[in-house]
């Protein structure tokens, strides 16, 4: 019982000392999603951010490896402090092509502007009205 109590106390003190992600270790990321043809913001676009490394600095819990959200009316998403380094951002919006690219986060506050294109014309061997 005493060993269990000491182990629990040690784990709590380690998590207290390491604490949450420090400002110098992370970045506040803002993603802005715009239409490539009009330059207008795209609201309700799904933004998925995959982290190369998880969010949890202490390996006691499962690391969060992605963040999923939707853009607001201004076409922006603000993600709270996440680790600096490599992230892959994927954007899915109705009536636009899906976007995906890898970025390096190196600054304490970073904004990434993403321009989505309209879908391409679908080609078919079949023609309407031809028999």
CATH architecture: Sandwich
Helix content: 10-25%
Poorly predicted segments: 4-23
* End-to-end Cα distance: 84 Å
Largest beta sheet: what is the strand line-up? 3-2-5-6
Q: Just give the CATH class.
A: Mainly Beta
Overall number of domains: 1
Rounded mean pLDDT is 79
Radius of gyration: 21 Å
Helix/sheet category: mainly beta
Number of strands: 7
What would you say this structure looks like, in words?
With 131 residues, the protein is mostly beta strands. The chain has one domain (22-116): Immunoglobulin-like (Sandwich), CATH 2.60.40.10. Helix content is 13%, strand content 40%. The protein has one helix and seven strands; from the N terminus they run αβββββββ. The chain has one helix at 2-18; strands spanning 26-35, 46-51, 66-70, 76-83, 85-92, 99-105, 109-116. The protein has a four-stranded antiparallel β-sheet with strand order 3-2-5-6, with no helix packed on it. Strands 4-1-7 form a three-stranded mixed β-sheet, with no helix packed on it. The N and C termini lie far apart (84 Å).
